[in-house]
Records
---
Amino acid sequence: MRAVGRDMDDDIGELSRRQQIGLVHSRAAQNAFFDHLGAGLTGKERQVSLDGERRVLVGDGGNVLTIPRDVVLDVLGIDAVWSGRQAVVRFTPDGASSGAVLKLSRENAEYEIRVNWYTGGVAIAP
């Protein structure tokens, strides 16, 4: 049984390298979904951005996800800077988004997270 609120670093040490990138991928998609949902519930825009220096994805909803140093993150999204961080995706209260694709890769493992610009939907692809 997992404790609620455990740090991801606690989980990563117990997993294989392929499972580790899968976990990072799943949590990044989950955090984007929460910001998409939060925009609709609060009626305010929510953004996800990347702090490249610290290697963290930061959501306006308070979600922060550290990207391990050996994972390559490629982002196709907005060419802008928000609060000193590289913009990734913006979610609007009407359900739409700016759209984005995040590709996480390590060795032979590669995963994508796709954010639909029209619906704001977050999809994951191995």
---
Amino acid sequence: MKNVLALLAISILTVLSGFSQPFVIPAKLDPAATIIPQFVDPMPHFAAGLRINAKAGGNLLVKAVPVKQVTLHYSERMVRKAIKAFWFRALGWRFFAALVCVLVSLIYFVWMGDRSWWIGVMASIVVMGIGFSAAMYVVHFRVSIGKFRKMSVPEATLELGDERFRITSNIGSTELSWSTVIEIWQFPEFWLLFFSKAQFVTISLADLDSEARDLILDRARSHGAKVS
């Protein structure tokens, strides 16, 4: 019995060790950060097809880059659902199953009068597991809901290009390359686009037509992102 509990305890500690860094989402993605490269347009915008004199000599033809634009609508209900979905999937059902098994076993052995060192180990693991999962949820919830409530209009404009995309709302604008997207989690009502284990953007599916969905998946996959 204790061998089985030891395996469950190891599985819980394995999950916890996988998230050694705190789950803190910055209030705004910083394009100048080391993880997310900065993209600076080296020249002003010109009308498509206009020929200008380049400094190095010769003519330069500026071509229009097709961009698909989508207006995303958010609600507090959707934000809450996105946080819950992220929280449960990030930890995994095995984490919760193992935690419940260790907790039930701890209660059983204490009730049976066991006061060995193993009781202390199980109690420590239960406290760590509950504390970590609760802190992870609270941090993401407070940051996400806080940013949502700062929006005077719960909308954002998503511009999709071949090499980069831009998200703009009344609280800020971020333009990133598709190469910064490392993973996409698909849910029935929304997608989560990840830039790291703890940084992600929520995309409402109700606002995306089939063309926009295919474009996001194609561009992300072509730059090495995992889709699940």
---
Amino acid sequence: MANKLDTVLYTAHTHTTGGRDGAGKASDGALDVKLSPPGSGKPGTNPEQLFGIGYSACFIGAMTLASAKHGIKMPQDAAVDASVSLGKTDGGTAYALAVTLSITLPGLDAVQKQKLVVARIILQQPGLLFLDEATGALDPEGKVAFHQAIKDNCPDVTVISVMHEAVAPRSAAGTEFYHSIVLIADGVATKKPLVPTLPVELTTILTQPRPVEDKWLRFSRRLKQK
């Protein structure tokens, strides 16, 4: 169930006719468009294009709020390229949208970009998060901080990440962020679970065990008589 709005800031009113082969317009006259199915070659836009533009604009707005919170000046030429896909789910019985956003933040360093993107993800609370080399420009500490923030603040999210590192990132304590890995080689994909990493303290004990003192092995031969 969707959360009820505490305060209504704005309400848009639109009128649409004819479905994907129709037209739509806003009540204030600011928008008046023809609609056509994707790939039909007919004049007009489609709901996926409109969604991509609207969602990207909201994403930039959310990052602007996050930048103010973190004391970062949002670039005036910040841009978002959206790829909105329409497809089938549940064995072809239902339809769904999938969205991929490519964010451009000129003039910001990797740490600043990381803070803004993480803040937006936490605000959105997605059920599925696809990361395409999202931490490639970060140093090792930054990669750990990025994944730890997602793990701590989005407990219900499923994360799929494209990486080129030989080893998946781990937390500062040495535990795995991911539970499985898919290796792709020669056109074949193989999924296997990641072996859980032991805590640093236990690893140290196993690799550098303390010597056993002789007195630990001495047992008294006296038996108490009843």
---
Amino acid sequence: MKRICLLITFFLTILPMVGTAQEVQESPEVLLARAEKLQAEGQPISALTAYMEANRLAPRSPEILWRLGRQYCRLMEDEFFPVDKIRLARVGQHYAHKASMRDPGNAMARLWNAYALQETSYLMTDARGRIAMGPDIYREAWAAIELDADLSEAWLILGRHEWDLALMSEPDQYLAERFYGKNRVPEASVDRAISYFQKAVSLAPQRVAPHLYLGMAYNALGKKELARAELEKAVSIETKEKSDLRHKAEAAALLERTGGSYL
């Protein structure tokens, strides 16, 4: 985290000094394209720098803001300590929220706002704070789906949210009633959570995470054969994001416990 902060500080100091000729050559659109290319090449810090320069040139652009928020969320994978992951998630949420405020109809802004909120909530040790974030996660994920029903990640967020609500302990249910309202928590169901996971899989069958969470849900319900099928798919899919490595490791570990094979 310290290395990332130092790099960010360095580039924020240097970038305003870049010559006028280069600024003319590199428009925000060019910088966005460069950032995407750098991320695909496994250079997330360089990609972040390009996103930040694009944001400096066009600070009110929702398209730049949500991408900057997404990049901070991606950098969470490079951190070990939860406190550092939370800091990055909160910065990511800050930019995604700004994007959604400037353009409420931007599905990706709403999606990454929900994603950053959910990742933050899972890292929190305070139950009250974690549960208090639930309504915002639910609202933003549904807003993203209403704008674009083909967003697999949004359905995955909803599935995890629904699963958590359905399996809450009694003390947590009491807290949840204060934030959702008394009629919301009882409506949550495991079956609905699974349907959301299935939707995420159907929309993005080549993504690792949807298969992992659907497999985990099946396993928790004792549906071992279905669980193994999904987990085997999770470990066999091509790795595209750094988070895929973590998800594959989780799938492999659970698969081994269920007696399946990931070789």
